[in-house]
Amino acid sequence: MHLFHPFKKYTPLLNEKRFTYLCLSESFSTLGNMAQGIALAAYIFTLSQSIFIFGLYLIIRFAPQFLLFSIAGNIVDKYSRRFTLTIINLLLALLTCVMAFNAHSTTIILIITLLIGIIELPYHPALSSSIPALVKKDQLGLANGLIGILTSIARVIGSAIAAFGLLNDTVIGLLIFNAVTFFIAGMITWTKLPTANEDSDRAQMKGTEESDDLEQSGLSTSITYIQKHSVLKNLIFGSFLVWGCLSITDVLLVPLLNSTIQGGEKYYGIYRFIAALGMLIGNYLAVPWRERYLSLKRTKYGFVVPLVILSFSSIGIAFSPLILGPILYLFLWIAMFLPSNLLNVELQSTPNNIRGKVISIADALDGILFILLTGLLPYLSHFISVKKLLIAASIPFVVISLILTYRFIKSVYINKKNKGLELT
């Protein structure tokens, strides 16, 4: 009984049937996607034995997110998010099947990966923008926490399946499994989600209050909105740094394992299983993490401590990838998801008619450093060892994180001092 007591706060959300179905849909989609993503990353490296091709795969996978973000935002805000999520899931199921039957060709895998990256662009903005349509605004923090926990459980299962598949060379089976999960997710979103892009609170107050949507809904309006909201702007910047730091380990881990032990890339699945556990723990802690920073009234600094953990963990993994590496990799992924709830609630609190664009802009900014480092680091690995490269690339993030930590501590100290003066 005591074990499940912390989860009682999520009970009211589970009574919201449409939100529960959204969680179910996303869990199915995440389960297969996690298994496929892990398997393909290691499989591409095994086929090519080239860090350049591996880096190219990662760039192709994430580059559309940065290059075509404005299109994704327009789709999410203009068309029914129910239709958008359903169509994306069904197209991903189809393309994954095609990939499964051509798994022997690196070229075809790269082409289909690019198509998948383009097609799934509106997926995250549409999913995140749909949550306010299913729960009340004051429940957004808990809603994001619950969907994060459930999808993290799906990631744990998916990574375990991927690790098994890699160790037993059954990548094609993983691809077919993923196609099935996409299809199931598409059917759930089609039958259970609302067609109209309308927030839950607004639907209940219709006829009593005016809409809080902005009169204009273009890309420039969305950018101006971000610039004017300090907390949102700082959290987007923090996410930009966190994703950039993560990219260093993400792109160099497979070649680091390979250089440490022969055939080391096959252990990548185990590392991703550890990452999935870290995501689960991080998402579970994301709700109290947000509440803590809200109570301190320092929400915009919620990413600082996670950035410190990420940057130092990356250096530690370089020195000891097989002994300390798994533990540090767990800490790294816990830290990665700690501030996620802070940013998600701020993004979902934006006006409904620009929400998709704002989320797409945030996703694109997350991808800038990720894509840059993913493209640059494999090239630099020809001139410097992977271990030294991982250490060198982490140092700027260590410096930035320490500077931001100083500012955060100074801000808290000044706030306490001002409160003391008020009491006096």
Automatic annotation (TrEMBL):
| A GO MF label | transmembrane transporter activity
Query: Is-annotated flag, keyword Transmembrane?
Result: yes
InterPro entries per UniProt:
MFS, MFS_trans_sf
Transmembrane residue ranges:
83-101, 107-124, 145-165, 171-190, 235-257, 269-289, 301-320, 326-343, 364-384, 390-409
Q: How does it sit in the membrane?
A: Multi-pass membrane protein
One Pfam family of this chain: MFS_1
Could you tell me which PANTHER family the record lists for this protein? INTEGRAL MEMBRANE EFFLUX PROTEIN-RELATED, MAJOR FACILITATOR SUPERFAMILY ASSOCIATED DOMAIN-CONTAINING PROTEIN
How is this protein named in the record? Answer: MFS transporter
Which species is this UniProt entry from? Peribacillus simplex
